[in-house]
Protein: Uridylate kinase
Organism: Desulfacinum infernum DSM 9756
Amino acid sequence: AKDAPIYRRVLLKLSGEALMGDGNYGIEPRVIEEIAEEIAQVHHLGVEMALVIGGGNIFRGVSAASKGMDRATADYMGMLATVMNALALQQALEKRGVTTRVQSAIDMKEVAEPYIRRRAIRHLEKGRIVIFAAGTGLPFFTTDTAAALRAVEIGASVLLKATKVDGVYDSDPMKDSKARKYDRVTFTEVLQKNLKVMDATAISMARDHNLPVIVFNLRKSGNIRKVIMGKTVGTLVEG
Ligand code: UDP
């Protein structure tokens, strides 16, 4: 069929910042509703969807550490922030009739299931959206790495990395008007040229396991759907 998704199972990574809208902190309810609406629509097309959400809109370990806080403690706080975002996203999705489960890498049984790989896969098979919270559960890692890790674990065909820009550029498009966007780029090039896609741990994880990554702009409505339909949107990063 012309209008059918090209992926069976995907992992969508949303940064915490995606939830703040035009603000500079926290969760903007209107924005979370919009994102949930797009995700619900795509899910409706029959794609198995897992989500990893960041926490940068609430707390970022590195920033706090640069101001003198103990890094590991700050990172654990950052992971707790992702749980708040996961719950916010969960209720917005469920309001739209999508069944979801939050699985946390840090046990918090009153608010989320523990992360159990086989159980997550079962939820996906049953058509539930699984939201992975608390990153990897380990300090000194990022939610991008958690996204690559979970994507590989659940056998996702692709990691969809939603960002604020249209894709991967040869320099920062927010600062350089001559920045050129790549349609396609290899993992090795990303690492060699230090291109801003994900941190090196996440990139090498994706590279080592042949997990393609599509970097695209979340702020343009309809983009998640386009990506799922196989339209050329953003930048494809692959081996
Ligand atoms: N974090 C961590 N381990 C992980 C994932 C996240 O320690 O596996 C912490 C880290 O401090 C990070 C914060 O959680 O700064 C929020 O996650 P991240 O910065 O990746 O969120 P995003 O930039 O996607 O909003």
Notes: Residues 102 and 112 are 5 Å apart (CA to CA).
